[in-house]
Amino acid sequence: MLxxxxxxxxxxxxxxxxxxxxxxxxxxxxVHTDPHHHRSVLTLVGEDAPRAVARAALDHLDLRGHDGVHxxxxxxxxxxxVPLGPATxxxxxxxxxxxxxxxxxxxxxxxxxxxxERSLPxxxxxxxxxxxxxxxPAGPHPSAGAVAIGARPLLVAYNVWLAEPDLERAxxxxxxxxxxxxxxxxxxVGDRVQVSMNLVDPEHLGPGEATDAVAAEVAIAGCELxxxxxxxxxxxxxxxxxxxxxxxxxxxIEARLARRERRRG
Length: 265
Fold this sequence. Notes:
Elements: E1 2-8, H1 14-22, E2 28-34, E3 39-45, H2 48-60, E4 76-83, H3 89-107, E5 111-114, H4 120-126, E6 147-151, E7 156-162, H5 167-177, E8 182-189, E9 192-199, H6 207-215, E10 220-226, H7 231-235, H8 253-264
Parallel strand pairs: 4-6, 5-6
Antiparallel strand pairs: 1-3, 1-4, 2-3, 7-9, 7-10, 8-9
Helix pairs in contact: 1-2, 2-3
């Protein structure tokens, strides 16, 4: 089984978000929406749902009028495939490459691959410059931009809010704690400031450790889990901290997969 965590560049119009996410049907596990990032994170299962969501996103969204604090290259900004259970990274790479070929043929959408070859930050830095699309046209789609398609292990997207809205301090903290396994950005989100993180090795550096790293540098106001977390990461965290860390059993991939199976009968 493959998980796919599609990031779309819409976080404000709930009717549009519902229309795009609804295209996934029963393969939709979770939707996380942020109006300041102007972004929604859709956790899906399989290969059909990401294609349905991508098509719906191009029907409803236009990057030319988009603004938001999160970096983006397209209306369907990131499409990472993640192996679950017996699936392998080779399965994820195959799904990634098939999606890229499909997006080029069906949507005329250029795509950039990341995973074993290069990182997502590399794609963001070099797309349409030093880096040409792996599939599709050489230039951006006029309304949809491009898509970064990945094959990666499980990661956890996670934000820690600073007690004081000091953006320069957030950026300094992000730089100070950045390391292998922990990607960080300092972002202003409305009238608040956060250290936005990807925990790329959450089995060894999970939400608790990431929060503690920020708290060692600056006073914090709270935490936010984006999307879902593997149950193994939850179980490695002190249950007494779950509430403060925005964790819960219902926020695990396994719990949502079980819910999906109950719906399917």
